[in-house]
Amino acid sequence: MILGLVDEAEASGASQADACGVLEISERALQRWRKQGIGDDNRAGPNTEPANKLSKKERQNVVSVLNGEEFRDLSPWQIVAKLADRDLYVASEATMYRILHEEQLQNHREPSCEPQRRYRPDELVATAPNQVWSWDITYMASLVRGAFFYAYVVIDVFSRKIVAKGVYDRECGEFAAQLIEAACQREGVDRNQLVIHSDNGSPMKCATLLAKLLDLGVATSFSRPSVSNDNPFSESLFRTTKYHPEYPKGGFASLEAARRWLCWFANWYNTEHQHSGIRFVTPDQRHRGLDVQILKKREAVYAAARARHPERWTGKTRDWSRADEVRLNPNPIRNAEADPEAAESEAA
User: Fold this and answer.
1) By C-alpha distance, which of 163, 329, 106 is closest to 233?
2) Do residue 79 and residue 131 come from a single domain?
3) Domain range spanning residue 188?
4) 155 in a domain, yes or no?
5) Does this model's pTM top 0.85?
6) Do 264 and 128 share a structural domain?
7) Tens-digit pLDDT profile for residues 32-53
């Protein structure tokens, strides 16, 4: 019954977290019940009221204090302190919060803006090159302390290929618009073919850039504010960039020097770097589809080696299978249903 109610709520557009909150169960418990095939809540609730429960008169007094003109704009933490200064104790902070929730009075009690809930970006799935791109801007230090150059890099999520790059003296959406437009022309991107993901920086949401993407027929996707994990492919690329042995630790002498280095790095990354996320082929090989034959050949080599000396193999040979799809910001609910144990372990 519980699982059915949750499924019905999710089908109506509610999130799993909201459904579990209404039913007063944890999401981890729900995942465990799905795995065990339990359809109802078998927990035994309390049969008696607690002895220390507030009386109706005491509860009403707490509500009156919380809603009084003096305290209606203060949090329970502030209220109990002011009451204690007057030698008064009405209830604990936890009790006040509980009563506010139960009476549906837990609204924002301060003049500042209410916190906004940020939702995880939609899952993006790439099954071929030029379906999902990711881009970001990173600092490149100069020889002058506190002065930086800015590297704009666009990466194809499916192949990990750097499809556009540039270094400028400031952050500007117009530069990004020029880079992305040129990359779309080089890659032959058609309208409504591509989604490009980025974080929430001002250059990413610049009106000039958004207008250009709309004109190109490119859809946009954005990370949550201050959540770097929502743009992992670009973040991983920048780590590889900054930790490359040839990266100048002291900074770049000029803008042109930074541009030359990034051009060299992009060529190395695309044509020489064997990327661990795509079975150790280069991004250029995967982008052009050459990785299919490369991986088949490696699989045949390992199969032949095992056939020659089967006694040296206790399990399967190395996995050289090709990843036919890449997911950006995968749906956690779908992953939990596919592998409840892994999802529960990750949550822990």
Assistant:
1) 329
2) no
3) 124-268
4) yes
5) no
6) yes
7) 877 777 656 666 566 677 888 8
